[in-house]
Design brief:
Number of strands: 11
Number of helices: 8
Number of domains: 2
Structural class: alpha/beta
CATH topology of the largest domain: Spore Coat Polysaccharide Biosynthesis Protein SpsA, Chain A
Helix content: 25-40%
Distance between the termini: 27 Å
Length: 240
């Protein structure tokens, strides 16, 4: 297969202590992520900076230990690509706090790369009255007619001077990269908008690297705070 999924999982977290190990329905969060990704049929690798994290998934997938000083998940993914000398054409950066995975969405991301896009990501419709629209922890994206991202923000975008033309989109932080573009991206210096919003995907846009945005109606909900846990557990009811 020409695609590999790499899951960056850093033990340290500012909002939720030892996030990859937080229990969700009796299992560590990261184990949910890996088990659901394994069902998609793609090759999966976990990239972590901690032996403690490695132990909870090493029976399921290959795990690479990465330096703790790497500044972002994308850097951890790029480090893994180079350390293992991975030859896959396409690399999916799958967040270690996103327990839901859908093969059809992954297939669409890969297909966008095959069509010539260098980076692709997911977004889901969001109602303007939804509290998440104004939540800075929920990243929003606005998209051009051709499906490329115009801007990502923690602020509610677009501003609704007039309603009825577009619906907001919640960005889902799962990225598919052409291998070369991933490595180039992580070698670029942080950019002004990226540093202002604390959103690394803006580094791509500021360097004129387009991002294809693919809409999905599947349910995604990352675990960033304790308040996210009951929401995710409710959706995981009946899941083994």
């Amino acid at each position: 297969m020409d695609t590999v999924i790499i899951v960056p999982a850093r033990l340290g977290s500012t909002r939720l202590k030892k996030k990859p190990l937080v229990e969700i329905k009796g299992k560590p969060l990261l184990r949910w992520v890996v088990e659901n990704l394994n069902r998609t049929g793609y090759r999966v690798i976990v990239a972590t900076d901690a032996e403690e994290v490695k132990k909870v998934v090493q029976d399921l997938v290959e795990v690479v230990l990465t330096p703790s000083f790497l500044p972002s998940g994308s850097d951890r993914v790029a480090y893994t690509v180079e350390k293992l000398n991975l030859k896959e054409d396409y690399i999916i950066n799958y967040q270690g706090d996103e327990p839901f995975a859908y093969k059809e969405d992954l297939d669409k991301l890969v297909e966008a790369l095959r069509q010539g896009w260098k980076v692709a990501t997911l977004a889901a419709p969001l109602e303007p009255q939804d509290p998440l629209f104004r939540d800075p922890n929920t990243v929003k994206v606005v998209v051009a007619k051709n499906g490329s991202a115009l801007y990502f923000s923690r602020s509610p975008i677009p501003y609704f001077r007039k309603e009825g033309y577009v619906k907001p989109l919640k960005h889902i932080g799962i990225y598919a990269f052409e291998r070369k573009t991933l490595l180039e991206f992580t070698r670029l210096k942080p950019t002004p908008l990226e540093q202002t919003e604390s959103l690394e995907q803006l580094r791509l846009l500021e360097n004129s690297i387009p991002i294809k945005v693919i809409e999905t109606t599947n349910f995604y909900h990352g675990v960033d705070t304790l308040q996210d846990i009951p929401i995710v557990e409710e959706k995981l009811k009946g899941t083994i």
